[in-house]
Task: structure prediction
Amino acid sequence: MSDAPSAPLSRDDLLARLAALGIATRTVEHPPLFTVEDSQALRGDIPGGHTKNLFLKDKKGNLFLVVVEEETQVDLKGLHGPLGAASKLSFGSAELLEEVLGVKPGAVTAFGPVNDTGGRVTVVLDAGLMAHEAVNCHPLVNTATTTIASADLLLFLRATGHEPLIIAVPRRNVSESEG
Result:
C-alpha cells in the first residue's frame, strides 16, 4: 500500500460521488469567481444560501473549514472559543489548502472535505447558513456553482468521514464607517 496521497477529486468525480449517494444537485457554469463580490456580480440568480469558506488553523496545527453565508463578517478573534481551538485562528496557507482539501484559493468549498481522506479538518457550518433549504458551493472549482439541499450537504459530509459542527459562528460588529 502506498503512502503517497491520492490525487484530489475532480469536479466530475465529485458530482459522480454525490449522485452515487443519491443526492440531487444542480450546477450552473459561470466565469471564475474569486471573491464574494465577483460571485454576486457574475453568478446570476441562483436561489438558496451562498457560501463563504474560511480555511483556518490554530497554533497546534488543528485545521478548520468554516462555512458561513457569503456576507457574514466572521469574528476571527472570538471564533477559537466555540471551536475549542488551541489558540486564536489564522488562515491556512495556499499550500496547506491544496494538500488537505485539494483546492486552490478562490475555490474553497464545503465539498472540499471529500479530498481530506486523513480527516485532518474539522468542518464548521454556520447555523444561519444551514437554515436555508438549499446551499450553493463551488464543486471544487470556481467556474461553477452547485446547489445542494442543506440536509444533503450534511449527508455528504458524513459520507466523507466528517461530522460537521453546526454552530452560530460569532459575527464581527461592522461599524457604520465600513459600510
